[in-house]
Amino acid sequence: MIWCVEDDASIRDIEIYALNSTGLEARGFEDGLSFWQALQAEQPQLVILDVMLPGVDGVELLRRMKDAPELSQIPVIMATAKGAEYDKIQSLDLGADDYLVKPFGMMEMVSRVKAVLRRCQPRQAAHLLQVGGLIVNLDERTATVDGQRIMITYKEFELLRLFLSNPGMAFTREQLFAQVWNTEYMGESRTLDMHIRTLRQKLGPYGKMIETVRNVGYRLEVAQ
What we know:
42% of the residues lie in helices and 22% in strands. With 224 residues, the chain is of the alpha/beta class. Strand 6 (128-131) and strand 7 (134-137) form a beta hairpin. Helix 1 packs across helix 5 and helix 6 (154-165) crosses helix 8. The protein starts with a strand and ends with a strand.
């Protein structure tokens, strides 16, 4: 079931029709309050969430979803106004899986919905993340290096999981704080750097894979 949160009834009806006509079930919500109330009783496969909503806006709803463990894994595609660059960046930093810029075509919307659903399926099914002798067990929340279990903190585990799930991707400090600490970037704080340094030490020979990206943040580089 795909949920469409859109206050414009004409747009909402077209979204639902387009999704239904391609074999996907869809349901519409006219505001953030009704959507949030429905989430407490049922969970959709994916949400198309408009940024500009009466009452509680889409960005705040996205933040609430990512802060709630039982809702954080639901894929979200944000619908932003043309030229609203800040809304797009903020949504992605908070964990949105994709975005649509209004006005958008229905075929583009359906295509993006199917692409996000395909991307999310393997992540839900994968229980182990591995690079060489470095293995992270997502179910047990454990990490081993060349067969030896290492003791890492909750935040270190979340950093490692994020890096191993997205090899080669450079994460900004803002993104890492949003996704691991669930907070905004704390400008002069050395918290992130300290966690990275300790994690590198604990990973032994694999610690050097976590590279510093100058003026950006960090990434995990896997040799080809």
